[in-house]
Request: fold
Amino acid sequence: MKYVKALEKAGLVGKQAKIYYSLLKSGEATASYTAAASGVERTLAYKVLAELQSMGLVSFSVRDGKKYFSAAPPDAILEDMRERYEDFRSIVPALKTAGVKVSTDAVRTEVYTGKKAAKVIMKQMLASGKDYISAGGGFDFGRMFPNFSRRMMQKIVQRKIKERIIVPEGTKISVKSENSEIRYLPMEHPLLGGFVVSGDSVILLIHASPLTMVSIENPGLSRTFAGYFETMWKAAKE
Reply:
């Protein structure tokens, strides 16, 4: 099941992931066998096989009057993902300029909830390529997203992004990089939140269920929170 979910994340929709994975395991099979093995209704299986053929992920051969289907190597999916990534990346600059222009004094606020939303925020911070600062407690993204966090730290180093973090004394940071600078501040009261400053954005972290993050884009507010951070940074211990 985990492989089917992984295939869905890679872009296979509906029953495509089940059919593809079934063929990958069997090597070669008829449509009726594939339908039974994947748990997909037979009529629908034919439709899905046709979709996968059009995507270049399934081919067939004819023997003794019967069609036998086989799956293309998973590398084909990876290559398709690369192509889609490059296609999308090429239009990102145009998409950025397509929106309504707002004044630099305007305030843009967005609310994100859930763990997936946290990843979106973190990816946006990476994409900006700017150094960022963070203060607060109750969050250990290294434990929440171990693999993702390790990849993020690698990209921080590659893109020469520096992070400065203030956490309560006794906090263990499970994932960090050579570009991470961490200081500790005595906290007498439990922290249920924190903040991140990245460029003109301030991201408020609320340690609740679900995890909630409020992104506020405003240069003035960003400078204000950066000032708060610097005061805390001076008082914090290495």
The beta strands are 58-63, 66-71, 108-113, 132-136, 163-168, 180-185, 193-198, 201-206, 212-217. Residues 119 and 197 are 16 Å apart (CA to CA). Residues 103-235 form a domain with the Endonuclease; Chain A fold (CATH 3.30.870.10).
